[in-house]
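Human:
Take a look at this sequence-structure pair and walk me through the tokens.
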Amino acid sequence: MEQLKGKYVWTATVGEKGQIVIPKQARDIFGIRPGDTLLLLGDEQRGIAIPPKGTFTDLFSQAFQGKDGDKI
């Protein structure tokens, strides 16, 4: 099967404390560093998604800007 450009699949094992390790290649590609906080989105039908860092920061910044573009 041909790999699609920009598409990846990884596996992660859940440890005894419920922790997972994000594979190094994934951390490098998405700029995930120690101490980063990641948002997990869950849907019982579709599964768990981890959106890219900054996705919600950008969205909230736009939502909470004043009329003149200044952040409130």
Summary: The chain has a mean pLDDT of 84. The beta strands are 41-43, 47-49. Helices lie at 24-30, 55-63.
